[in-house]
C-alpha cells in the first residue's frame, strides 16, 4: 500500500502520524505527569501550612480572646452583671461627688445563639469627672463594654440650674447554653 505512494504523500502521512503520536503520548503519559506535579505542589503547600499550624492556632486563640475581651463575653448571670455595673458606678459616684440620676435596668435582646444585655446609666456631674467615669468603665470594667455615651444638658426647674448629664450604655454579650 505504501509502495505506490509518492514521497510527498508519504511525508504528509508521516507528519500526520507524528502529530497523532505526540497527541496520544501527551494524553497518556505527559498530561498525567503534569496533574501529578500539580497535586504534589498542593500537598507540599498543605504540608507547609500544617507545619505552621501551632503558631496559627496560637494567633487565632489570641485574636479570639481579644474579641471576647472587647465584647465582654463572660459567664455571669444577669443579677451579677447588674450588681457589678451598679457597684462600679455607685462607688465612683460616691468618691467623686457625682449623682446617679437614672438606672432603668437591663434590656435583653436575643438573636440566634446570643443574648445581648444593654444597661443604660445616667449620671450627673462635671464634665471631667463624667469623662473619667466613662473612661474607667471602658478600660477597667471587664464584664461589659461601653457601646455608647451621650453628654447632654438639662434644665432643673427646681434649682433653675443647667445640669450636665452623661448617658452610658454598657453591653454584655452571652452565648446561650442549649445543652
Detailed description of the structure:
By secondary structure, this protein is α+β, with helices and mostly antiparallel strands. The chain folds into two domains: 7-51; 73-175, Alpha-Beta Plaits. The chain contains four helices and five strands; from the N terminus they run αααβββαββ. It has helices at residues 7-51, 53-71, 78-96, 127-140; strands at residues 99-102, 106-111, 114-124, 145-156, 161-175. Strands 1, 2, 3, 4 and 5 form a five-stranded antiparallel beta sheet that branches. The longest helix has 45 residues, at 7-51. The radius of gyration is 36 Å and the shape is rod-shaped. The protein starts with 6 loop residues before the first helix and ends with a strand. The relative contact order is 0.12. The mean pLDDT is 84.
Distance between the termini: 84 Å
Low-confidence stretches: none
Portion in strands: 25-35%
Q: What is the third-level CATH name, the topology of the largest domain?
A: Alpha-Beta Plaits
Structural class: alpha+beta
* Beta strands, count: 5
* Cα-based radius of gyration, to the nearest Å: 36 Å
Number of domains: 2
Fill in the keyword field for this structure.
alpha+beta; rod-shaped; 4 helices; five-stranded antiparallel sheet; Alpha-Beta Plaits; 54% helix
Amino acid at each position: 500500500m505504501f509502495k505506490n505512494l509518492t514521497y510527498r504523500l508519504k511525508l504528509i502521512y508521516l507528519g500526520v502520524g507524528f502529530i497523532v503520536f505526540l497527541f496520544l503520548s501527551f494524553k497518556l503519559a505527559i498530561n498525567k505527569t503534569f496533574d501529578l506535579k500539580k497535586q504534589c505542589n498542593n500537598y507540599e503547600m498543605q504540608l507547609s501550612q500544617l507545619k505552621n499550624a501551632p503558631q496559627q492556632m496560637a494567633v487565632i486563640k489570641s485574636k479570639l480572646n481579644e474579641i471576647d475581651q472587647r465584647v465582654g463575653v463572660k459567664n455571669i448571670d444577669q443579677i451579677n452583671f447588674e450588681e457589678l455595673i451598679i457597684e462600679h458606678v455607685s462607688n465612683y459616684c460616691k468618691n467623686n461627688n457625682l449623682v446617679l440620676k437614672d438606672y432603668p435596668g437591663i434590656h435583653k435582646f436575643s438573636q440566634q445563639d446570643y443574648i445581648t444585655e444593654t444597661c443604660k446609666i445616667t449620671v450627673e456631674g462635671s464634665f471631667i469627672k463624667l469623662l473619667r467615669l466613662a473612661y474607667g468603665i471602658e478600660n477597667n470594667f471587664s464584664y461589659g463594654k461601653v457601646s455608647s455615651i451621650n453628654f447632654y444638658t438639662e434644665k432643673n426647674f427646681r434649682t433653675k440650674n443647667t445640669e450636665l448629664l452623661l448617658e452610658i450604655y454598657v453591653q454584655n454579650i452571652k452565648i446561650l447554653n442549649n445543652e
